[in-house]
Every structure is written in structure tokens, then in C-alpha cells.
Write a structure and sequence with these properties.
Layout (H helix, E strand, L loop, with lengths): L1 E4 L7 E9 H7 L5 E8 L7 E11 L5 E9 L3 E7 L2 E16 L2 E8 L3 E7 L3 E7 L4 E10 H13 L6 H4 L4 E4 L3 H11 L6 H32 L5 H16 L7 H8 L3 H12 L3 H18 L5 H7 L5 H12 L9
Antiparallel strand pairs: 1-3, 2-4, 3-6, 4-5, 5-11, 6-10, 7-8, 7-9, 7-10, 7-11, 9-12
Helix pairs in contact: 4-5, 6-8, 6-9, 9-10
Length: 338
């Protein structure tokens, strides 16, 4: 067994493509917050190949650290390092790894299904990761500086809102189902276009920021629902959640309030009341919001024309659709084109 140690400096980027040795893999840790990085592999020497594929590490100007991999292990490896306090967001498109945050085990990834995961480190923490021979993993891992989290917590305190455990408890772990948009962003980070180095960094930073936003949005929305469970009855909150999930599952289907209420076995009035008291949003407003999100994906991911996406989103007038789209996302529908 051979091992390699590293100290972790602060380069802007570090990457490799092809066959990767133990020594080369250690060098890529220089562009992360991996202090004291060490990796071992059974019956391997420093120049032996331990991975095949593509890896890229970026320290963005904003302080985000972005680690991207599309790799297959050629042998069993065991890596360990110390990670500074940070909030970590991961989107794993394929594969899984056994991981430990100190002595707390965690499976990174869900095999064949894409998954979003996050974990919170309030102190420097030893990390360990084990990879099996033949394991193929495609993932994006984003380290968010603690300063960002402190800003979010301050904003919540100023709004008299409770702080989520996910952002305050050491080694808190959570998951969410990443949207198609975030899965596409992760895919673009894994397979970036050719560009000037500074432009690649800026492009990666913008995509990573959007991924972090969706993870934060999931945490804050869940926290809001938990807070409001003490306000509406649990039965009312449960009904509202059922309505919400029904809308999400049928977003491409024309939905009227009476048809949704009938499917849920409620009256329109009781449905509206439960939804508004739980989410502080009307059912109609939520449907419009989700249809615009779906329209963005139809244009960006499916290549549909703007007029077609507008129709599918329930807009008879493309101009009205464009106005609503720009109000929500800050850019015109045509800006979805890559």
C-alpha cells in the first residue's frame, strides 16, 4: 500500500483528464479546502493509475470551491483530509461513495438516480471517503464559506424567522430532489465548453451559485413549513402538501382550481385556505410559478420554441408569457438558449 500527503494551497483551478496517478490526484487537492489530503490504494505506487476520467477543482472569486468529477476507479482507494468550516452542496448525477464526516457515516450519491445533498460543518472536520474499483461517479460538490451562512442566518433573525437546523447544527445532513435545471447545470459543469480560463471560472461560479440557491431555497421552504405547522393544524398542512405535490406532478397538464380540489377530495374554498395558511401563497400563484419554471426547462433542456413553451405553460399570448417570465427570472425566455 502506498500513500500520498498534501497540504492544500489556493490555486484558482486544478484539473486532469485521462489516467490519473496517486501523485497527480493529490496535486488536484491544492485547489480545494482539503487540508492534509492523503490517499491510499492497495498495491499501488505513486505513479500507478488509480482513476480514469475527468476532474476539475476551482476556487471562485466569491469564495465558492467547486469540485467536479466524472471518474471510474481502477482500484480500491481510501482518501482522508481535514475540511474547514463550510456548508457543502452536492449534486450527484450517477454513482455513490461511502463517506464519513468525522465518525458520522454518509452515503454520497444514490446510484443511478440524480440526487441533491448538503451537509453543514461549523468546525474543521476530518473527512474520509472510500471508493471501490470500477465505481463510476459523476458529481459536483460546492463548498460554501461560513460567511455566506452567517449572512443567511442574520437575514432570518432580522425577519424574526427561526434558523434551520441544516444551517446551524454541526454535521447536519439533508437531501433534495434537484430540478432538471440544476441537473443540467451540473452536467454543464462536468462537461464545460472550451473558453478562456477566466471565463471558465466565471461560468462555473455562476452555475454553482444557482445550484446553491436551489439548495438554500429547499432548506428555507422546508423550514418555513415546519414553522407554520404550529400555526395551521397538522391536518390542514398535510392537505396543503398533498395539493402542492399534485401540482408538481401534473405541471404540464392544464389545471383548474375545481379539478385540483376534486382530485384531492376537497372543496375549492378549503383547499385555498389550507394552501394559503401553510405556504402564504395562493394555489393559482403557485401554479403560475411552477409553469414558468417548467417553461424554462422546456426551452433550455428540450429545445422547444418560446411560443410553444408559452402555450404549454398556459399562456395564449406570448408577450404576456415573456413579461411574466422576465419578471420571475430577470431575463427574457430567449435567454435560456445556450
Amino acid at each position: 500500500m502506498s500513500g500520498v500527503g498534501g497540504t492544500g494551497t489556493s490555486n484558482a483551478t486544478a484539473s486532469f483528464e485521462g489516467e490519473v496517478s496517486l501523485s497527480a490526484l493529490t496535486q488536484t487537492s491544492d485547489a480545494t479546502r482539503a487540508q492534509g489530503f492523503r490517499i491510499t490504494a492497495d498495491n499501488s505506487h505513486l505513479d500507478d493509475t488509480v482513476l480514469r476520467g475527468r476532474m476539475n477543482n476551482i476556487l471562485a472569486p466569491s469564495g465558492l470551491s467547486i469540485h467536479v468529477t466524472d471518474t471510474t476507479g481502477t482500484c480500491d482507494t481510501d482518501a482522508s483530509w481535514r475540511m474547514q468550516a463550510a456548508f457543502v452542496v452536492a449534486v450527484v448525477l450517477e454513482g455513490s461513495l461511502d463517506t464519513w464526516l468525522g465518525d458520522r457515516p454518509m452515503t454520497l450519491g444514490a446510484g443511478a438516480e440524480p440526487i441533491g445533498q448538503y451537509w453543514n460543518l461549523t468546525d474543521e472536520t476530518p473527512i474520509r471517503r472510500r471508493s471501490k474499483r470500477g465505481a463510476h461517479i459523476r458529481k459536483v460538490i460546492i463548498g460554501v464559506p461560513r460567511e455566506w451562512i452567517q449572512t443567511v442566518l442574520k437575514d432570518l433573525a432580522d425577519a424574526d424567522a427561526p434558523s434551520p437546523d441544516s444551517l446551524t447544527q454541526h454535521r447536519a445532513i439533508g437531501t433534495w430532489r434537484p430540478s432538471r435545471h440544476v441537473q443540467s447545470l451540473a452536467e454543464q459543469l462536468i462537461n464545460p465548453t472550451q473558453d478562456l480560463p477566466v471565463m471558465r471560472i466565471l461560468s462555473a461560479e455562476s452555475k454553482a451559485t444557482e445550484i446553491v440557491y436551489e439548495a438554500f431555497r429547499h432548506i428555507l421552504d422546508a423550514n418555513q413549513r415546519g414553522e407554520q405547522n404550529s400555526d395551521p393544524s397538522l391536518t390542514e398542512a398535510g392537505r396543503a402538501q398533498q395539493v402542492r405535490q399534485y401540482i408538481l406532478d401534473n405541471v404540464a397538464t392544464p389545471q383548474s382550481l375545481p379539478s385540483i380540489a376534486a382530485a384531492m377530495g376537497m372543496s375549492v374554498g378549503s383547499m385555498q385556505s389550507a394552501f394559503k395558511s401553510t405556504y402564504k401563497l395562493t394555489v393559482g400563484a403557485f401554479i403560475r410559478e411552477q409553469r414558468l419554471i417548467a417553461a424554462r426547462d422546456w426551452i433550455e433542456l428540450d429545445g422547444k420554441r418560446v411560443s410553444e413553451a408559452a402555450y404549454l405553460a398556459g399562456y395564449d399570448n406570448p408577450a404576456s408569457f415573456s413579461t411574466a417570465f422576465k419578471r420571475m427570472f430577470g431575463f427574457a425566455p430567449s435567454g435560456c438558449r445556450r
